[in-house]
Write a structure and sequence with these properties.
about 90 residues, mainly alpha, 1 helix, about 90% helix
């Protein structure tokens, strides 16, 4: 969006329409360049943030899978222990 500059009549009288037009054009170019730079910087920062977030999600997913594996191992061990106790009691009678 171009800069909207409201300059006084004295400014126009002192420097002339051509010089003021060049000044406003230069300010618009500087504004466009800084907006593009800011947009590129924001996109780069978002890409870095997205990469870090993805990496942390995959670390969390790996941690959850490992913990689920540990829980499943303990579940099977306790189930086997209970079944062995039940079978032992069944044959004891």
């Amino acid at each position: 969006m171009p800069i909207v500059v409201k300059l006084s009549q004295a400014f126009y009288d002192r420097f002339g329409d051509e010089v003021v037009g060049e000044l406003v054009g230069m300010l618009n170019q500087v504004d466009a360049a800084s907006q593009n730079s800011l947009r590129e910087l924001n996109e780069a920062n978002f890409a870095r943030f997205d990469d870090r977030l993805e990496r942390r999600f995959s670390q969390l997913e790996a941690l959850l899978e490992r913990r689920l594996g540990e829980q499943a191992r303990w579940l099977y061990l306790s189930w086997a222990t209970l079944m062995a106790a039940i079978v032992a009691l069944w044959f004891r009678h």
